[in-house]
What does this fold into?
Amino acid sequence: MNTLTELHLDALTEVFNVGAGRAAASLSEIVGDEVKLSVPSIEIKKSSEADTSVIELNSARFGAVSQQFSGPFEAEAILLFTEDHALEIVRDMMGSQMSIEELAEFEQEAMCELGNIILNACLSAMADMLKISLNSSLPSYKIATTDEIFQGICNSSDQPYVLVLHIDLTIEKRHSEGHLIFLLSSMSLHKLGIQIDRFLGSI
Amino acid sequence: MKSINLEAIISSINMGLIVVDSEENILLWNDWVVKHSEVTSSQALTAKISNVFQDAPSAAFLSALKSVLTYGLPVVLSNALHRSPLALYVPSDKHLEKTRMHLAITMTHLPDANRKSCCLIQISDSSTSIKREKMLRSHSEILKRDATTDSLTGIYNRRFFDEHYKMALGQATRQKLPLSVFMIDIDFFKEYNDYYGHPSGDKTLIKVASALKAQLSRSTDVVARYGGEEFILMLPNMSEEHAISFADKLRLAIWDIAIPHLKSRISQQVSVSIGVSTYDQRSEGAMLSLVDAADAALYKAKQNGRNQVFYAQLSEFKANKEKS
It folds into this structure.
C-alpha cells in the first residue's frame, strides 16, 4: 500500500525543487560557474519492486554518496552519480582524466562533498517547509553497481518503500550535464506522510 | 573514560579542533590550530571565526558554517574543491615565506547544554596525501607509458598499435576518410643477426625504428614494432596514391642510412620490403582485413625480390581471400 498520495508527492516535488535551487547556488559558488539543478520527477516504489528499471539508466556503476537522516522520520538518502555524466563534472572541476575505479582520494572527497551539498540542501528544504529538525550522519562514498545498490534496498525489510527523485544537473558554460538519482528509503514513510499532512493543513 | 584527561587529548591531537557557537564566537581553539594559525587561544577565545585569522576564511567556508548552525546537518569541505579555505600555514623556517596549508574540513553540529547551536570544526592537513597522490600518479603514468612502448627501440609496441588501430578505423569510417597501413620487414635480418651478432642486430633495429619515426609528421600517425624485425605504420587520412609514394619514401629512408649487410642476397646494405593497403569509402565492409591485406602485400614485395613496395587493393584482397 502506498502511504503517500498524489498531493503528498506534489508537495515533496516542490520541497525538493527548493532544495535543488539551494544546492545549485552553493555549487555555483564553488565551481565559479552557473550550475542548474532541477527535479523533474519523483516517485514512490516498494523496496521489493525497486530494481534497475527504477533508475532508467544503463550505467553499470555508480558513485554513491549516502547519509543517514534521523528526526521525526528516519531515512537513508543515497545520491547516485552516473559514471558517464556526473563524473565529468567532478573531473571538469578537478581537471583530471580518470575512470570511476581510479578515482583517487581527492576526487572521492570531492564527490562526497558534492553529494553532501545536494543531500543537505534537499533535506534542509524539507526541514524548513515541514518545520521539523533533522540530524544526519557524515556522508560516505562508495562505488557500487546498480544491483548492489538495489540489493541493499530490497533486503532492508524495515524500509519497505523507496522514494526516487530524478535530478538534472547542468553547468552552463561547460555544457556539461549530469543526471543524479536520489533514493530516500524510509521505514517511516507513513511518518513523513503525517508531517506533510500537517504542512498541507497549515497552508 | 573516567581517568582520561579530555583536555590533554584535545591539546595533543594531531589535527585542528575549533568549536564556535551560533553567533560564531570561538569556544575552543586547540594547540594544533594555535601552532598553524599563529593566533593564541586567548586571542581566539575573544574573537569571532570570521575575523580571527590573518586572512578571512573563504566565502564557501563561512556559508557552510552558517548552514551547519542553522540546520544541524554535517558538512564536508574537500581539499579538491577548496584547497586552503582557512589561513593556516605549513610549519617552516622563520625566514622563509609562509605557505598556506592544504586542508580537508568536516563540520558537525554539537548539541549544547544551553540548547544553543554549536559547530565542531575538524581540520586535517592534506599535504601528505597530496604528495602520496602525486607520486602514485606519476608512477602510474610511467607504467602506462612502459606498457605501450617497445623497450628496445622506444617506439610504440604491438599492444598500443592494436588498441589505436581499432579507434583509427572507427574514426576513418565515421569521418569518411581514408586510412593507410604499412607493414615493413627488414630484408634477410636473420642472416644479419647470424653474421654480425645480436647486439649489432639490436642497433640496426633501433636505427630503422628511428628512421621510420623521423618520416612521420602528424600526431595521429603511428609507428610500432610489430614483431621481431617487423614494423607497422598507420596513417589516417592518407589516400592510396599518397600511400604508395610515401612507402617508397620510407624504403629510401632506410636505404639511405646505408647500414652494411654483407649477407644480404640482394645488395651490400640493409634494405626493407614494404606492403601497403588503404581503406577508403570504396572498400566498404573490408576494413577488418586492412592489416591482413598489408601483410599479404608485404609477402608479395618479398616474393618479387625484396627492397621494394607492393600495394594490395583492399577489395581485391578480400575477394581473393573469399575465393580461396
About this structure: The helical segments of chain A are 6-31, 52-55, 86-94, 105-130, 146-155, 189-202. The longest helix of chain A spans residues 6-31. Chain A touches chain B through 26 residues (CB under 8 Å). The beta strands of chain A are 35-46, 61-70, 75-82, 135-136, 140-145, 161-171, 176-186.
